[in-house]
Amino acid sequence: MKNIFLLNLLLLALLFGCKNDPAENNQGDDATQTEAAALDPASIKFICQTSTAETGDYADAPHHEVFLQIGSSKVKVADILNCEILNKDAFEQNQIPANAIAAVGGWWAGAGDYLYIVEEGGKYVVKKGATAEEMTNNDFGYKTIMTFDKTGNEVF
User: Fold this and answer.
1) Burial class (CB within 10 angstroms; exposed 0-12, middle 13-18, buried 19+) of 107
2) Which pTM value belongs to this model?
3) 3-class secondary structure, 41
4) How far is it, in rounded angstroms, from Cα 30 to Cα 151?
5) What is the phi/psi pair of residue 90, to 5°?
6) Each residue's pLDDT tens digit, 64-88
7) 79 pairs with which residues across the strands?
8) What is the pLDDT of residues 16-59, one digit of tens each?
9) Are the C-beta atoms of 113 and 81 separated by less than 8 Å?
């Protein structure tokens, strides 16, 4: 019995001891595969969908769910009152950087919500801001709400 145990132990040691280390040039192959899997920024867009969900005190207010299509994935990023796809010529007036990939937003009853996605530090970053008629500082106060890596996976 003792001999069988020792024999099995020896076989296990040989099995794990003979394992080949990966070749150093495989790391370059992994980097190439990662680059190949990187998303084309042109495939990134926002989608506005009208929702019938109750909006609390604002029963007559519009309600939209905002989704981000990033590669083959679609993820919900926000709920806003009014949602329209913004053209590049509307970016500056809504404090959206010129290098933003896509943007949405809308104005309703004296207030507006806006979202955009931009490439920052090798990642795709979704930012959300808001403004209202009564605001005196004219700052949309954009804050990061989601971050994605170059392959479209959300980074937490």
Assistant:
1) middle
2) 0.73
3) helix
4) 14
5) -100, -5
6) 999 999 888 899 999 999 999 999 9
7) 65
8) 454 444 444 444 445 444 444 788 999 999 999 998 766 555 66
9) yes
